[in-house]
Amino acid sequence: MNNIVLCGFMGCGKSTVGKNIARKSGRKFLDMDSYIEQKAGMTVSEIFEKYGEEKFRDMEHDACVELAELEGLVIASGGGAFTFKRNVEAFKGKDKIVFLDVPLGIIKNRLKNDTTRPLLQRPDRDRVMKDLYNNRYPIYHAAADIVIKGQNTPLKTAFAIIDAVNGTDVAEKPHKNA
Ligand SMILES: Nc1ncnc2c1ncn2[C@@H]1O[C@H](COP(=O)(O)OP(=O)(O)O)[C@@H](O)[C@H]1O
Ligand SMILES: O=C(O)C1=C[C@@H](OP(=O)(O)O)[C@@H](O)[C@H](O)C1
Ligand SMILES: [Mg+2]
């Protein structure tokens, strides 16, 4: 059975909604960042600090290749993973890539107290978020087999994704409201 792979910007709910999908679908949940942290024996922030973002992206790509070999999971990707073609290609065609589409305003509110995401720990945080969001949005959209609006509760969003994945062939790209 193929994997359900969630992609989208930091704070769109990949990790939270992913856990809900797993609970309601009986699939096993796997968080890509946690997988990388476990292998590295340190947090994502520590990897960025100690080795830099480029090294993290290589570790992230290795994780994509390894996780794409598995079956039947719900995978929450890291927000940057699907902005790299090589990572999209690892899953595309075999797994169902779901873009959790959430407006930046809602994401900003969700992450207003966040201190764990290295890319956001800087004084020009708002500018960085806006630029990253605008650059990445079309890339997530193009990578996805399914696009789901993620403003609803995590559980409602989870059910919308389960419904879309069960009812949709990979080739279609319905725009469902969660
Ligand atoms: N559908 C949702 N409704 C409200 N808050 C949410 C929702 N999804 C996630 N959150 C909250 O937003 C923050 C980021 O969620 P997370 O799952 O870590 O996002 P991601 O993995 O995409 O970065 C967390 O505080 C989480 O509780
Ligand atoms: O958007 C990004 O480049 C990142 C998103 C993070 O994951 P979440 O999307 O779960 O926050 C994590 O992989 C790292 O901080 C980089
Ligand atoms: Mg996450």
UniProtKB/TrEMBL annotation:
Residues that hold substrate according to the record: D33, R57, G79, R136
Q: Which InterPro entries match?
A: P-loop_NTPase, Shikimate/glucono_kinase, Shikimate_kinase/TSH1
Look up the EC number in the record and give it.
2.7.1.71
Tell me the Gene Ontology biological-process terms attached to this UniProt entry.
amino acid biosynthetic process; aromatic amino acid family biosynthetic process; chorismate biosynthetic process
- State the reactions this protein catalyses: shikimate + ATP = 3-phosphoshikimate + ADP + H(+)
Enumerate the UniProt keywords alphabetically: Amino-acid biosynthesis, Aromatic amino acid biosynthesis, ATP-binding, Cytoplasm, Kinase, Magnesium, Metal-binding, Nucleotide-binding, Transferase
Protein name in UniProt? Shikimate kinase
Protein species of origin: Ruminococcus bromii
What are the leading ranks of the lineage? Bacteria, Bacillati, Bacillota, Clostridia, Eubacteriales
